[in-house]
Amino acid sequence: MPYKRKLDTFSTLVDIIARLRGLDGCPWDKEQTHLSLKPNLLEECYEALEAIDEGDDGKLCEELGDILMQIALHSQIGQEDGQFNVEDVLRSINTKLIRRHPHVFGTTKVSSSQDVIQNWEAIKQEEKGTTSVLDGLPKGMPALAYSQAMQRRAARVGFDWKEIEGVIDKLVEEVEELRKSASHEERVREFGDVLFALVNVARRLDVESEEALQLAGRRFRQRFQLMEEDCRRRGIVLSSLPLEEQDKLWEQAKERLSE
Description:
- By secondary structure, this protein is mainly alpha-helical.
- The protein has 12 helices and no strands.
């Protein structure tokens, strides 16, 4: 049966999801729970981030739609379980945005984006009854992103180096402590400190550490696979080559990918 509703409204998406989970709907959709959908939500967010990295607006449009689908699915499940519905989700975010922007929807005066951030954090702590700006960070975040988020929040209340040189000096200090570590336990601790300091450098340079490492990993994968392809064409095994020859293949791969 052809679907007759307009395809450019959020209410149509909500209706489609309700149909998919309805009595005569899709077996897969009807089986899903908040828990089972966790990997899907995370994957869709990463795919949207990848589209942004690639500068692919068409792909980004599609991936944002996939994220909206996840939101509609969770909202439908919440409604079926008597927990919340999509109107509750929309009411929650709209209320939050109005409440946390008193300089737009109220009489509060601000002079900079820093004032906005400080007001946001103060209102957030009051709402949640928390005592620390670090409260509320999801513990399941990737470690680099989690570290950078903590550092950003600490910086919002003034706990930050005045100049980036201080951050660099701290990184050098941590590397030296790693060099001097003797036991495995010390190496684990000091290596963690090096990573944390390096993330702080990224933050001060306005670089997302998680994104930067993902891009580095992607470049490594592309270059290494070119090395493997080159070896297959030549009928040789990569592992049989001495390191010097492998390095030459690596440099050639870098050149090819930069063309």
